[in-house]
Amino acid sequence: MTLRIGVIGTGAIGQEHVHRITHSLQGAEIVAVTDVNKEQAIKVVKKQNINAKVYESGNELIQSSDVEAIMVTSWGPTHEEFVLAAIDAGKPVFCEKPLATTAEGCKRIVDAEVTHGKQLVQVGFMRRFDHSYRQLKKVIDEGKIGDPLMVNCAHRAPAAPGFKGDMALTDSLVHEMDVLRWLLDDDYVSAQVLLPRRTRFADEGLQDPHIMLLETKQGIRISVESFVNCQYGYDIQCQVVGETGTANLPEPSSVPVRSDAKLSNEILVDWKDRFIDAFNVEFQEWIDSTKKGEVNGPSAWDGYVAAVTSDACVEAKRTGQIEPISMPKRPAFYDRGQKVKL
Ligand SMILES: NC(=O)C1=CN([C@@H]2O[C@H](COP(=O)(O)OP(=O)(O)OC[C@H]3O[C@@H](n4cnc5c(N)ncnc54)[C@H](O)[C@@H]3O)[C@@H](O)[C@H]2O)C=CC1
Ligand SMILES: O=C1[C@@H](O)[C@H](O)[C@@H](O)[C@H](O)[C@H]1O
């Protein structure tokens, strides 16, 4: 059986996902697309040579009996409406991050899904599908470094065109907010944001870099540097310090070159290349789980927790204080953990 997917939003990442589902992955086809920029949706259908109908609106696409599962890759502020409509129609929905732009919006989605009575929503936190993060998790889970005590991370990008306001926290660091609680199997209790000396390469009025400090329920202290105009490359670092050892996120593989009296390795410059395999695994697992009627990836609850955490970080940046993070108890509905394959 081939899963019939409808895509809402055929911009940058929508086109990437359409391409991978059509040309790299198994078991699904794109049968419907829509975009407020209809011309673009038509172009994507032609360029990617897919047999998909172009719909006038996301809601029309969701209602179509040709569409079995929905992929939401439109702008963040539109996600809540489409995810709620998919739940209302009883259809599985993959939503790129953020699940909604406010914690209240995410909570409305959680409430709607719980009322519906069956999990339908998966959120696009692709790092949980990255082989190197999965290897790191295995080392921690097997107790090879003892209990984790501290985590030191960096999220660096060469430049951040189009970044406004607090996007370094809400758009970029949200990946660490999700992946670190998954890695540690823990939740956050407080956040603090420190503002180092500003780089001259940041757009006017924008702070860069930031340091985000999180504390977990188990007392693990996390420090994440966000530096989105670092010039030199796209560089994701993570080191977990445990009671008996440390474990580092492996570097992406690259050929060590000895030349000109130098030993060098290339550094990637684009998140699309760094996480290309993770996106492929994420979507193959989503397709396979959806066909079994299951959700095994990041849930609506995880999307909600990320939004609560990023709200706390935005507030912590504003106040300069340590801000508490408190969440209602997770509904038992979300108890099944994510299955991790290596
Ligand atoms: N997981 C990841 O690493 C990444 C996730 N994202 C997320 O994916 C989403 C899309 O990002 P991009 O593709 O970079 O943006 P984009 O601006 O390139 O594309 C978004 C598309 O959505 C369309 N759109 C907006 N409102 C719509 C509506 N009401 N109905 C139908 N179409 C609508 C726009 O016309 C545009 O074509 C964002 O939420 C972003 O945060 C983006 C990049 C990486
Ligand atoms: O989601 C993403 C982008 O939106 C964001 O701008 C980048 O910083 C992230 O690394 C990437 O994964």
UniProtKB/TrEMBL annotation:
Reactions the enzyme catalyzes: 1D-chiro-inositol + NAD(+) = scyllo-inosine + NADH + H(+); myo-inositol + NAD(+) = scyllo-inosose + NADH + H(+)
Biological process, per Gene Ontology: inositol catabolic process
Pfam families with a match to the protein in the record: GFO_IDH_MocA (PF01408), GFO_IDH_MocA_C (PF02894)
Gene: iolG
Alphabetical list of InterPro entries matching this protein: Gfo-Idh-MocA_inositol_DH, Gfo/Idh/MocA-like_OxRdtase_C, Gfo/Idh/MocA-like_OxRdtase_N, MI/DCI_dehydrogenase, NAD(P)-bd_dom_sf
Positions of the Gfo/Idh/MocA-like oxidoreductase N-terminal domain: 3-125
Protein family according to the UniProt entry: Belongs to the Gfo/Idh/MocA family.
Oxidoreductase in keyword set: yes
Function text: Involved in the oxidation of myo-inositol (MI) and D-chiro-inositol (DCI) to 2-keto-myo-inositol (2KMI or 2-inosose) and 1-keto-D-chiro-inositol (1KDCI), respectively.
Domain Gfo/Idh/MocA-like oxidoreductase C-terminal: 137-324
Official protein name in the record: Inositol 2-dehydrogenase/D-chiro-inositol 3-dehydrogenase
Subunit structure comment from the entry: Homotetramer.
Keywords: NAD, Oxidoreductase
UniProt GO MF annotations: inositol 2-dehydrogenase (NAD+) activity; nucleotide binding
Coiled-coil regions, chain positions: none
Annotated metabolic or biological route of this protein: Polyol metabolism; myo-inositol degradation into acetyl-CoA; acetyl-CoA from myo-inositol: step 1/7
Enzyme Commission identifier(s): 1.1.1.18, 1.1.1.369
